[in-house]
Design goal:
Elements: H1 9-12, E1 40-45, H2 51-60, E2 64-70, H3 74-83, E3 88-90, H4 93-98, E4 104-107, H5 114-123, E5 127-130, H6 138-151, E6 155-157, H7 165-175, E7 182-190, H8 207-223, E8 228-234, E9 239-242, E10 246-249, E11 255-263, E12 266-273, E13 290-296, E14 299-304, E15 312-317, E16 320-326, H9 338-348, H10 356-375, E17 379-380
Parallel strand pairs: 1-2, 1-4, 2-3, 4-5, 5-6, 7-12
Antiparallel strand pairs: 7-13, 8-11, 8-17, 9-10, 11-12, 13-14, 14-15, 15-16
Helix pairs in contact: 5-6, 6-10, 8-10
Length: about 400
């Protein structure tokens, strides 16, 4: 198989195969032995805009049985339940946990609420897939992971950028030494900011956990854990106009520049913000710039489009004067596939490239970036994760 056509199944599994294509049929699929595949009972909390991408993907996953939805706006939970033939809907997590039994909580709520709700679900013995971030601080995230281990359940967090064919091509290119001695990398992601909710701008929100988190996950996945961080963050627009809310005072950074030392001389940089004019706006399908770039002594490569919706990788070396594009086929990759992958892992006993330790390392980078801004110092990091992700 060529590098341009990398099957996700070749690199999603770290320990054994994870089964057949999970989104092949909206109905329960049959295994090769003729027995019905195991299905994981799933409850989804947070029925806003993100759920409109997650729920259709979950509904098509052969390993998922959708049991319930939950939202503090009861009508919203009911609407999403009806749209996807989900039997139950609730207005509070307490009702959800006391209601019809489920195995996996999919947390799509405001980012400030993730930690609290993830903890409550883990305490109740549920597996958890959480949108980013999985906690409000590294220390709290480590406590959640300890709790998950104690309860013998699994915890994962978005984003899923490391399971794309573009990421696999870049990781294998680096592992093969085709860029020579790697020196530097840059990632950028930004637009003029969301208007549909205030939580992006409130304490615990910000452009780093909303946007920068993608590039931070990709670059640490490719280049390895970060040793130290120097950063500057700012608030460019102190008051935002939010739909159906009105004016909101901005408390979290809407502009960030993060410089990271990966060791062995490798330095990377990520910028993210809610003040960046982009004619394509938030639409990944229309983005064709190199939003991730990696440079070495013998070559360079650039990710075409956003890392959450990549369109390929442009690669060029000293011996290859013309840039060529690889990994242009995305297969079944989608940014909203994480919960379906989690259900698949629970059902089959498999593993995936996405790990809670990696999510916690990225969370520590975000914390360190804010501390660097406050103190003017370079901040050392301590959290590890298994690397290389793909060798």
């Amino acid at each position: 198989m060529s590098d341009a056509k990398i099957d996700r199944r070749k690199f999603v599994a770290q320990a054994g195969a994870i089964g057949a294509a999970m989104a092949a049929s909206p109905s329960p699929a049959q295994s090769t032995s003729g027995e019905q595949s195991k299905r994981v009972r799933v409850g989804v909390i947070g029925c806003g805009s993100v759920s409109r991408a997650y729920l259709p993907h979950l509904a098509k996953c052969r390993h998922v049985e959708l049991v319930s939805t939950c939202d503090i706006i009861a009508e919203r939970a009911k609407t999403q339940a009806d749209a996807h033939s989900v039997p139950k809907s609730y207005a509070h997590i307490d009702e959800m946990l006391a209601g019809d039994q489920f195995d996996l909580l999919v947390n799509l709520t405001d980012m400030q609420e993730h930690e609290r709700l993830n903890r409550q679900a883990l305490e109740a013995g549920k597996h958890v897939w959480s949108e980013k971030p999985i906690a409000n601080s590294l220390a709290s995230g480590e406590q959640l992971l300890k709790l998950a281990n104690k309860k013998n359940v699994r915890l994962w967090g978005a984003p899923v950028t490391v399971v794309s064919s573009a990421f696999a091509f870049m990781a294998k290119t680096l592992a093969a030494g085709k860029l020579g001695k790697v020196a530097a990398a840059h990632g950028e992601y930004g637009h003029t900011g969301p208007r549909w909710s205030a939580f992006f701008y409130q304490e615990g929100g910000g452009s780093l956990p909303d946007l920068g988190v993608y590039n931070l996950t990709t670059l640490t996945g490719l280049l390895g854990p970060v040793k130290s961080v120097s950063a500057m963050t700012s608030i460019v627009t102190p008051v935002r106009e939010i739909d159906r809310v009105g004016e909101v005072t901005v408390a979290a950074e809407d502009n960030a520049m993060v410089l990271m030392d990966h060791g062995d001389g490798v330095i990377s940089h990520v910028q993210s913000g809610f003040n960046y004019f982009n004619p394509r706006g938030h639409d990944g399908s229309g983005e064709r710039r190199h939003t991730i770039r990696i440079l070495g002594s013998k070559g360079g490569m650039g990710l075409v489009g956003y890392d959450w919706e990549p369109h390929g990788v442009d690669f060029r070396t000293k011996d290859q004067s013309e840039s060529k594009r690889y990994a242009t086929e995305s297969g079944d990759y989608a940014w909203q596939m994480g919960a379906s992958l989690a259900a698949e892992c629970i059902a089959t006993g498999g593993e995936m490239l996405i790990t809670p330790e990696h999510a916690l390392h990225v969370l520590e980078i975000i914390e360190a970036s804010r501390e660097s801004q406050e103190t003017g110092r370079r901040i050392g990091l301590r959290s590890p994760f298994k690397w290389p992700i793909i060798s």
